[in-house]
Amino acid sequence: MFVSLPSRRKPSMRWATPLLFAALWLAFLWMLGRPDEARRSLWLAWGALGRGLAGGTNAWDAWVGALQDGSVLRLFTALFLHADWAHLLGNLVFLLIFGLPAERAMGAWRFLLLFLAGGAIANLAAVVAIDDPYRAVIGASGAVSAVIGAYLALFPGARLGVVLPLGLFLEFVRAPAFLLIGIWAALQVVFAYIGPAFGAVAWAAHVTGFLFGVLFALLVRAGIARRMRRQKGY
Fold first, then answer.
1. What percent of the chain clears pLDDT 70, i.e. is strictly above it?
2. CA gyration radius, the chain
3. String of DSSP letters for 99-151
4. pLDDT attached to residue 5
5. What is the pLDDT of residue 162?
6. Does residue 146 contact residue 154 with C-beta atoms inside 8 Å?
7. Closest Cα partner for 72 from 98, 91, 99, 54?
8. DSSP the chain
9. C-alpha–C-alpha distance, residues 88 and 93, integer Å
10. Rounded to 10 degrees, what is the CA torsion of 114, 119, 120, 124?
């Protein structure tokens, strides 16, 4: 007879989200201590669009050259550059809200892959959409959008707390995650064409990152299920 015994194994520590949080914060503080001209030079040197990955007369030759000289890595380094405090803090808040539960479900290494690959592909979409070799795409918004998409795919029935201003009072309500995130995703699509700060915000990166996150979570569901079974000891 085989008897199922409850596992005494402790849940694995969530280190990827705190690591990314600290890396984004420290990179911004380091950049903040530099003069304005030096910061702009950094954006062009390390931003996803600095000098134009897809520039030149032959796009294929441009991408081959980017792979050979390593400049394609700017799709990743751009994730750790932010224009100002508001740009950084918005990404950090959403990273913590959606990143910690997503990492707990999929594991630290899968989550790290989601953030980096989703952010790079989102930046690539922004490169193609903007098509300007002298404008730099920076920030972790595309990667955070990938995290939000993965959260929705992993926890479609979750409920999120929202504070609503009702006259002179603030009311705390819990709304379905699919509704709130669905509204957010729809706004990203609309803003990509007529949004505020059009041209200053890479809305295409948000949309692409979100779709990548949903697809990524669906593809790794089997691996997540195996991980959950191992944690429970069967």
1. 71
2. 20
3. HHHHHHHH-HHHHHHHHHHHHHHHHHHHHHHH--TTS---SSHHHHHHHHHHH
4. 41
5. 64
6. no
7. 54
8. --------PPPPP--HHHHHHHHHHHHHHHHHTS-HHHHHHHHHHHSTTTT-TT-SS-HHHHHHHHHHHSGGGHHHHGGG--SSHHHHHHHHHHHHHHHHHHHHHH-HHHHHHHHHHHHHHHHHHHHHHH--TTS---SSHHHHHHHHHHHHHH-TT-EEEEEEEETTEEEEEEEEHHHHHHHHHHHHHHHHHH-TTBTTB-HHHHHHHHHHHHHHHHHTHHHHHHHHHHHHT-
9. 9
10. 130
Whether 148 shows a pLDDT value over 60: the answer reads yes
Burial class for 193, CB neighbours closer than 10 Å (0-12, 13-18, 19+) = exposed
The encoded tokens of residue 134 equal 């002298």
Q: What is the pTM of this model?
A: 0.82
